[in-house]
Design goal:
single chain
């Protein structure tokens, strides 16, 4: 038995120079198909719907907790879903027509420049009215003490 020597690989023959043209610089068809803007748009739209749905679920759980810290997260998720889904928009409009008192604060938060503090104050007053007996309502007394009506001179 002899010593095994590594086999020598044959050197590749030098390839002839290719002439570069614009056709050779084009990306292959399968790469163009994968990078089509329509496909990416659909993928981003689906990702936006899924991400918004997750944020809405987290925000809903957070909204049920004391201090309603999940409401901003819920609104951000709702914005993401409503901007990317036509069906969700139609359902939101139907919900808005059926229950305007419930959906109106959400619509105020969805505007370009949302009125966060007035909406939060309105929700505090609404929850106080639902939960706390009349004689124990501190928010109403605070409002009357700090926000007195201004008399407009005619």
């Amino acid at each position: 038995m002899g010593v095994m020597r590594p086999r020598r690989l044959a050197r590749p023959s030098p390839q002839p120079l290719k002439i570069m043209s614009l056709v050779s610089l084009r990306t292959p068809a399968f790469v163009r198909a994968a990078a089509a803007p329509e496909r990416w748009r659909a993928v981003l739209r689906a990702a936006s719907i899924v991400g918004g749905s997750i944020l809405m679920a987290v925000g809903f759980v957070g909204a049920l907790l004391p201090f309603h810290l999940g409401v901003p997260v819920l609104v951000i998720g709702l914005v993401m879903v409503l901007r990317s889904s036509h069906q969700a928009r139609r359902q939101f409009i139907g919900l808005q027509r059926r229950h305007p008192k419930i959906v109106f604060p959400i619509r105020r938060l969805l505007r370009r420049e949302p009125e966060v503090l007035p909406v939060a104050w309105q929700q505090v007053l609404r929850m106080e009215r639902l939960v706390v007996p009349r004689r124990w309502r501190p928010a109403r007394a605070l409002r009357r003490r700090f926000f007195k009506r201004r008399v407009v001179a005619a």
